[in-house]
Amino acid sequence: xxxxxxxxxxxxxxxxxxxFDLDTVALPNGRTTELEILRHPxxxxxxxxxxxxxxxxxxxxxxxxxxxxxxxxxGKLDPQEDPRDCAARELEEEVxxxxxxxxxxxxxxxxxxxxxxxxxxxxxxxxxxxxxxxxQDEVLEIVEWPIEKAISKIQDGTIRDAKTIIGLQMxxxxxxxxxxx
Amino acid sequence: xxxxxxxxxxxxxxxxxxxFDLDTVALPNGRTTELEILRHPxxxxxxxxxxxxxxxxxxxxxxxxxxxxxxxxxGKLDPQEDPRDCAARELEEEVxxxxxxxxxxxxxxxxxxxxxxxxxxxxxxxxxxxxxxxxQDEVLEIVEWPIEKAISKIQDGTIRDAKTIIGLQMxxxxxxxxxxx
Lengths: 181, 181
Hints:
alpha+beta, Nucleoside Triphosphate Pyrophosphohydrolase, 4-stranded mixed β-sheet, 23% helix, 45% strand
């Protein structure tokens, strides 16, 4: 199949972080369609894993979903920022730890039907205490659980955030595979 | 911690599917902030699993991320639609299969920093051939892989869609656990 062709873009809104566009696109099947696109700068996230198998999560107020939810530390990329630097920065700012080692697990599309947001998910190990420094509109508490407990909280529906589920599952099975060797 | 309080909503845009609002919110920490929110009707997705361990994926053109990506069949909820009915409908429309059994694996928030989108992810088994019926702006091909191959495509970064990674991981480990019994 051939690729699509962008015919025009109508800018609907430019906010502090997000831009909302209405794109007119020629599809490979010959049709022309209008698509609503939210443009996002991208983000990094970290699964902070202590030597004893504890993971550090946050319970954060998320207005969009109407309450507090469990997440791994994460934040948006600054312009031109390297995703690894962003992961290190957000880890220390949100939960007050520095990671001696950051390993990229994967980079995900959160909702490719309507946004270009990508989240780079890292595993952070060799943790040492740093300095928490929250943004003024961040409302959160820190939760430390054995990773097996975090996985059970995915199974029972307590943890529902996409990047958090993917990061925890990848770290858990990687750790299990290593422990079993 | 207490909850937040919505002070006002400014409607920026109402499209065919998405609504974009600018909400002013009083946070539990006493601050007032403006938050950009994309309101979404929600969606259902299905991991179609054949008796022989093959999963059925689609390779779909996604304008927002600039090309073709691998996904499980999925689609938006119609108004008041039951997520299970939506899953069954999208499975048949997109890949031409009906599932004798649909089991809810989990319901995820795709990007809770800026949208209320929830995706209900099902496992579909006891598959039988139905009738594919694509929307006119859907451009996709069907791919059938052993689930082990699909998992390896997560590891190597070929599969990057959040709902697809979560669904495949959950089905794979559930199947592995059952097979090992």
